[in-house]
Amino acid sequence: MEYRTMYARHRTAAGITQEKAAELLGRSVRTVQAYESGEIIPPDQTVALMCDVYPAPTLALEHLRAASSMGRNLIPEITRMSLPQAVCNLIYRIQDFTANHRPEDLIRISSNGKVDEGQETQQFAEITEELDGIVQAAIQLRYAQGTGLPTDTIY
User: Fold this and answer.
1) Per residue in 84-107, pLDDT tens?
2) Closest listed residue to residue 90, CA positions, set 125, 134, 41
3) 6 close to 66: Cβ distance less than 8 angstroms
């Protein structure tokens, strides 16, 4: 599984040994090895600390996606990109959404307080899929290279 390597990848990218990571995280070397081998999934609090210690702000997103099916369903897969590329991607998606009259469609569909079966259900699913793309682009912008955040990589 994905979580079996992400912790080691971020630790090594930071130039930190397992021994130093264990010290900084307040864990034993054996526990750090268990996290990195996939033997143990680290608790969320430990991953939050890893994000600061390594430093790897996107590790939390990767952890949540890998550690639970809910995370995989709710958190989009993020590809690290340059700041200009992330800005262009987000603006393109927003403009495309608007150009396709999606805000008006969404208002029309929801004006009666519910999504009617049939064509509205299909349109609503298409609209929410496009919105998911906008959310993904916004998160990619948040973690883009050149934002001043540490330059880690998401896979």
Assistant:
1) 999 999 999 999 999 999 999 999
2) 134
3) yes
| Fold exhibited by the domain 3-74 | 434 Repressor (Amino-terminal Domain) (1.10.260)
Q: How far apart are CA 19 and CA 33, in angstroms?
A: 10
Domain ranges of the chain: 3-74, 83-142
- Structure pTM? 0.76
| Pairwise CA distance, residues 25 & 46, whole Å | 7
DSSP assigned state of 135: H
The residue type of 71 is: G
d(CA 59, CA 20): 18
Can you tell me the distance from the alpha carbon of 108 to that of 124, in angstroms, rounded to the nearest whole number? 10
- Tell me how far apart the alpha carbons of residues 149 and 88 are, in angstroms, rounded to a whole number: 19
